[in-house]
Design brief:
By secondary structure, this protein is α+β, with helices and mostly antiparallel strands. About 25% of the residues lie in helices and about 20% in strands.
Length: about 550
């Protein structure tokens, strides 16, 4: 996984763009923070009149495979879009604290019991009042679903009404991430009456309590959202209409910002900021996230050398995460362990066993495994900065005598190859996790019996799974040692190797838009605060 070797010296083309980008984002990011509240990159100007149309551009519309049922949504790009129409019992603040949303408060009479008091006056966008039955039904439906998020709710024993406006959840045993797990879109409260009577299919129809309703959708082309006039939160949303264009090519998003066709866009290339440096009224900010890139090594492929733990450990030792962050991410990412860097209580990746070892030790492990001259194919998606990350990985492993061929696919083809068969047919693959809001949550994906998506390429490690479960029983503030054991064991297992955090680059037109943006986002949702955004109507 990780650490120091070169810094800005491998892959000259990458280096040039990375170093250029590092220098050009400082001024606009600082400018945005000068007027923002603590924990925010920007805060919408409430003095601006509400109303108007907000034009956004994002790179992918990833709902085609599973539809738009939030309980089946397993990627952050889908969460962004669904969060405009769906809401959860709780949410997270800029410091990752759990805050009220559809539940105005909750009580924990003991470490296994949660009693949620539902907010008054909440209705779905069809006008029907949200009830405790909707909450109970939604959470039970999630637990019974095949969605990956069911595993994040932990050991739920019972969900029941506790009066007309209360819901009680009882756990089988303490589970510290429970509230944080309720804060993400897959745990949204659904219109269970309509789902049960089959008048609404959540795979195709968005009917939630959120600030916007879908007016029009063309898969992989565009979304149009209109204000939800039944929305419970008075004064929101500020903008009447959201037009979201799906623009897979980064150049198209940059051009839309330059010519005013988009008021806000998400970007991937580390050099995009430098390309926008001369654009009048365009601000570029880097939003830190708990998301992180990781390398998957297929230990189930018949005949693969990657099934040998010594080979996987050698790869982990040879990887230099700081170099990946510096070159491929323009210095914006951070090396991370299995617990996302930046979350309170996360492990320090510099203390992991692989971090203290040298390339020579990696070569020795390869020799012991009979894997000198190892070569394999690294399958990646073509969205930046993944190709840049892959090239640095290739250079890192070359120093240990490992040859890496990079296979670059569009995201749909990549997903089919990586997740389409069990056992999977790829050698190694690059991906990224949304890191969430509790340091123990993403560790659960290292147990393929919980995650499911990685069962085609990853063997369960019973010891690691037991350590993960034990760490998630520990109270906040008392988990450091337990999480450190999880990090060290995952480091030794090395079937999925954490690399670096994945910052989000956001650019917006200051002459068209006054947005609100967290400085650090825990669920990969750049659009989390879009209901606060104010359109400057003179444009």
């Amino acid at each position: 996984m990780r650490y120091p070797r070169l810094a800005c010296g491998v892959a000259a083309a990458l280096l040039a763009s990375a170093c250029a980008a590092t220098g050009t984002t400082t001024t606009p990011q600082a400018a945005a923070q000068e007027t923002a509240a603590p924990g925010f990159l920007a805060v919408a100007d409430q003095a601006l009149a509400p109303g108007g149309t907000l034009n956004l551009q994002v790179h992918i519309d990833s709902g085609a495979a599973t539809g738009y049922d939030p309980q089946l949504a397993d990627v952050a790009t889908t969460w962004q879009l669904l969060s405009l129409s769906y809401e959860t019992l709780v949410t997270v603040g800029p410091d990752f604290s759990v805050q009220p949303l559809l539940a105005e408060k909750w009580e924990t009479p003991d470490d296994r019991t949660y009693v949620f008091h539902l907010r008054e006056g909440v209705a779905f966008s069809n006008g029907r009042k949200m009830t405790a039955d909707d909450v109970v039904g939604s959470l039970k439906r999630l637990l019974a679903s095949k969605g990956v998020w069911a595993g994040q709710l932990g050991p739920v024993a019972e969900i029941e009404k506790d009066g007309d406006d209360r819901v009680k959840v009882t756990l089988k045993e303490p589970y510290t991430p429970f509230l944080a797990a309720l804060a993400n879109v897959p745990a949204a409260i659904l219109p269970m009456k309509e789902i049960d009577d089959k008048s609404v299919d959540p795979a195709t129809t968005l009917l939630g309590t959120g600030p916007y309703v879908v007016d029009n959708h063309r898969q992989d082309v565009s979304w149009t959202f209109k204000r939800n006039d039944k929305y419970w939160n008075q004064g929101k949303p500020a903008a009447d209409t959201l037009n979201i264009t799906i623009a897979p090519e980064e150049a198209a998003r940059i051009a839309a910002l330059q010519n005013g066709g988009a008021a806000l866009a998400t970007l991937g290339n580390v050099d995009s900021a430098s390309m926008l440096a001369g654009a009048k009224d365009v601000k570029v900010v880097t939003q830190a996230t708990t998301d992180f890139y990781y390398l998957m090594l297929n230990s189930l492929k018949p005949g693969s050398k990657l099934a040998d733990p010594k080979v996987r450990q050698a790869i982990a030792i040879a990887l230099d995460a700081q170099q990946i962050a510096d070159i491929a991410l323009g210095g914006k990412g951070k090396p991370t362990a299995i617990t996302p860097a930046g979350l309170p209580g996360s492990c320090d990746p510099a203390t992991l066993p692989s971090a203290a070892k040298s390339v020579e030790e990696a070569k020795k492990l390869l020799a012991e495994a009979g894997a000198e001259g190892l070569s394999f194919t690294l399958t990646i998606f073509n969205t930046e900065p993944a190709p840049a990350v892959a090239q640095v990985i290739q250079q890192n492993l070359q120093q240990a005598g490992i040859t890496v061929k990079i296979e670059q696919l569009d995201e749909a083809s990549w997903s089919g190859k990586v997740y389409g068969k069990a056992p999977a047919e790829f050698d190694a693959a690059l991906s990224w996790f949304a890191g969430y809001a509790d340091p123990g949550m993403v560790t659960k994906w290292w147990n393929p019996e919980t995650a499911g998506f990685n069962a085609g390429f990853m063997q369960p490690d019973k010891e690691l799974s037991a350590l993960i479960d034990a760490a998630n029983k520990e109270k906040t503030g008392q988990r450091a040692q337990a999480l450190a054991q999880v990090c060290a064991k995952a480091d030794a297992d090395a079937q999925m190797i954490p690399l670096v955090t994945r910052p989000a680059t956001v650019a917006y037109r200051a002459d068209q838009l006054s947005p609100s943006l967290y400085a650090t986002e825990g669920y990969g949702n750049v659009l989390r605060l879009v209901a606060d955004a104010r359109v400057k109507k003179s444009q």
